[in-house]
Amino acid sequence: MAKLQARSPSPVPPADGRQKRLKTSHSPSAPSTDYASHFYPGLLEDSNVQALRTSYANADPFKFAVIEKLFQDDLLRGVKDECLNELSFTEKETDIYKVNQTGDLASLSYLSDAQLQLFPNLLSLRDALYSPDFRRFIRAVTGCGPLSGVKQDMSVNSYTKRCHLLNHDDVIGTRRVSYILYMPLPYGQEWKKEYGGALELYPVRLSEEGVPEPEAVPAKAIPPSWNQFVFFEVQPGKSFHSVEEVVVGEEGHARLSISGWFHAAQEGEEGYVAESAAPELKSSREQLTSSSTIFTQYPDTSKTLHPDTPLSSEHIAFLTRFLNPVYLQLRTMKTLLARFAVESSLELHHFLSDALASELESGLLQADVADGLDGATRNGCIPPHTAADRILRQLQDDLFPSEAFGAWLSALTKLIVLSYAVEARRFRPGLDYTLATSEDDDARLDVVLGLTPQMKKEKNKKGKSKATQEDEEPFGWQTGEWGGWE
């Protein structure tokens, strides 16, 4: 297996003062190098190029191509051994991915001669990928235009259990073509579909605002296989893809790959064209950073929502329909106000009234089980209209937007609540997620009501749980293994 190291801060510069240079510089190999000999026989022949071009043009849900054998097998086996024995992998995790990754392989050119001798196969593979012959090959298949040989952008990635990459379109800077070369482990064994780790490609639909967005379910899933090479042109609003979560946990199993991008020709290279107008469609990254929440103003009743104004009898009567009455008691509210003043947050348990919570939990559990969301399967769909759905709509449309709830929030926080935005969300395994975003406008008060039903452990034939209350281990959502936390 690959050598792993914990996530760490930015690397310290080398003792000799040399900074690690990336991306735009490398030492070009001698022009006489025979790169074609590294590739699988027949790969660069005109007949193969034509067949791939036809397949690429007719691919769905967007244009992509799959080459089942890219390199000579002895070269790739040597690359695999060098990756596992000589490279260190760092665990990286954000809101969109979890993966074990090396540094940028473009930096290999700045190693000493003694260090370079450790990576003869990896250097040969890298230089072959960015050679003029192979860049012409990629251009001929995709029609993507001139590609850079000096701007190399690639790394080795090891996806082990729980590693994943969420849906995105890869549009950043001058990227033109995305690629991935698979070296799944163990070598010589088939990577089974049930292991996860497939490359998933998504169709798009137009949102209400007319912006292309990916469907919830991929139209194409490509499981990894040894020496397989997948590539596609990077296109905003089209090239949506993800890496399915790896679920196999057996020792020695990893979705090992080399992935990266071919960039557009850089200044000074043949075919360079300066970037002019911005693309018509925004990338997924730009959409996230430019998104904004639409708020609705409360009616002009500032006296009612002022934090020093006591709740009116009408407000209390309305809130009693929904809230646990203990949270409407003056003594409780003063205690919570004091805590919020110190901690700037509150966590309120049993928030809804018992009758409402009981009816809601029962309906949600039934909907989850009916939809296969009970922890046993990964299927999911929007639930039918039920009693639980009716209550959710009351909470979303009646309680949270109400002046009474705004006044209650003001009383607990001493904040003047001017507007609101409310949405109900249901996250289904394998389908739904949200990414970390921020908006730099007005100060906000976040309010989250968790409505996930707790899963019950199976009972034995005598009607008793399999573990006593004292020694029962955390189960389901309580373990944190199912995700879904804020």
Number of H/I helices: 12
Low-confidence stretches: 7-31, 375-386
Cα-atom radius of gyration? 28 Å
Q: Given the helix and strand composition, which structural class is it?
A: alpha+beta
Mean pLDDT: 82
Oligomer state equals single chain
Helix amount: 25-40%
The count of strands amounts to: 16
Shape: elongated
Largest sheet entry:
12 strands, mixed
Distance between the termini: 33 Å
- Classify the beta-strand content into a percent band: 15-25%
Could you give the order of the helices and strands? EHEHEEHHHEEEEEEEEEEHEHHHHHHE
Explain the overall architecture.
With 486 residues, this protein is an alpha+beta fold. Helices cover 26% and strands 16% of the residues. The protein has twelve helices and 16 strands. It has helices spanning 46-57, 73-86, 113-116, 120-129, 132-142, 284-290, 302-305, 313-320, 330-343, 354-370, 387-399, 403-413; strands spanning 3-5, 65-67, 88-93, 97-101, 147-159, 164-168, 175-182, 199-201, 204-206, 212-214, 220-222, 229-233, 241-243, 255-264, 296-297, 419-420. The strands form three sheets. Strands 1, 2, 3, 4, 5, 6, 7, 8, 11, 12, 13 and 14 form a twelve-stranded mixed β-sheet that branches. Strands 9-10 form a two-stranded antiparallel sheet. Strand 9 (204-206) and strand 10 (212-214) form a beta hairpin. Helix 2 (73-86) packs across helix 4 and helix 10 (354-370) crosses helix 11. It is elongated and about 85 Å long.
Topology:
Elements: E1 3-5, H1 46-57, E2 65-67, H2 73-86, E3 88-93, E4 97-101, H3 113-116, H4 120-129, H5 132-142, E5 147-159, E6 164-168, E7 175-182, E8 199-201, E9 204-206, E10 212-214, E11 220-222, E12 229-233, E13 241-243, E14 255-264, H6 284-290, E15 296-297, H7 302-305, H8 313-320, H9 330-343, H10 354-370, H11 387-399, H12 403-413, E16 419-420
Parallel strand pairs: 1-3
Antiparallel strand pairs: 2-12, 3-4, 4-5, 4-6, 5-14, 6-13, 7-12, 7-14, 8-11, 8-13, 9-10, 15-16
Helix pairs in contact: 1-5, 2-4, 8-12, 10-11
